[in-house]
Amino acid sequence: MSRVWNFSAGPAALPEEVLRQAAEEMLDWHGAGMGVMEMSHRGKEFISIAEQAEADLRELLAVPADYRVLFMQGGAIAENAIIPLNLLGERDTADYVLTGSWSVKSAKEAARYGKVNLAASAEASGWTSVPVLESWQLSADPAYLFVCTNETIGGVEYAADPDLARIGRAEVPVVADMSSHILSRVIDVSRYGLIFGGAQKNIGPAGLTIVIVREDLLGRASPHCPTAFDYKTVAEAGSMYNTPPTYAIYIAGLVFQWLKRQGGVAAMEARNIAKARLLYDYLDGSDFYENRIDPVCRSRMNVPFFLKNEALNDAFLTGAREAGLLQLKGHKSVGGMRASIYNAMPIEGVAALVDYLKTFAARHG
Ligand SMILES: *Cc1c(COP(=O)(O)O)cnc(C)c1O
User: Where is 284: in which H helix or E strand?
Assistant: First the structure.
């Protein structure tokens, strides 16, 4: 067996330890005589797996007691509809901050259900920066303010939790798409009304969506909201109104335990800072490559970069594959290259990438 360094934006690399444990438990989980995929979601074994996963996630993110953790399906894209269907309530408007592909998509979907006020947009920068909190123009009485705190495709990230109290609007719940950086850094959950993300970037397998929602936001769903997507229904059923994605929850749970063994989110953040610095410092010091994102909002998870001579792109990717470095091609809307370096990517993988960048530049520079 040989494993590569996998820089995929998602579904993405998982910790090898987790995969080995899952392999060992595949046929017989803890003496149950069956694997997790084969278990009833209502049996005591699976309920213990789901409860442990929730408890570990709560501990890792220090989720306050008045927030509910939901294990849902449909991915972040389905949440783009599920959120307005649940949160608009009596109000007709929601505010959106546009920072790139994902938030643009979110705003477009929300406009099918209510009025969207564009509170701020980074489009004029070519999506290479993010609008600072102080520039956000909230509407008079929005149901919520939506922000994507890490744009996976463009590679921009808000460096801090948005604190609407700083612009005198603490009453507006912040809804954050954290699909591609949840658990990569310490956050203050209490700054948000709702946090969501698909699991397949920085947690586990595709098919699981994590939603962390403040209790007072439950019970506002539109009559048109599918019952299986009504947060109150899901919360009251302990995420088991319908059959949840059991195997994905199990793997996510193993990842949470792995994160705890690594020292928790603060320890991961320190590693992620070191990994991102290694890569960005090399790119910035090179006259062969470039990253075009404003340094104050560069993503620690998704690092887009360009070869100054784009005619070498194919040779670069071929050589990378030969060196065991995969999935470096940039998103088609951006071009160039992108290295996604989530929690499961160790610094050794980033060092291998930087070595290859140097070798390739020396050969072709
Ligand atoms: C990947 C991603 C999505 C889309 O997730 P799906 O699981 O495909 O629905 C949405 N937002 C962000 C920030 C993402 O990284």
Answer: helix 264-285
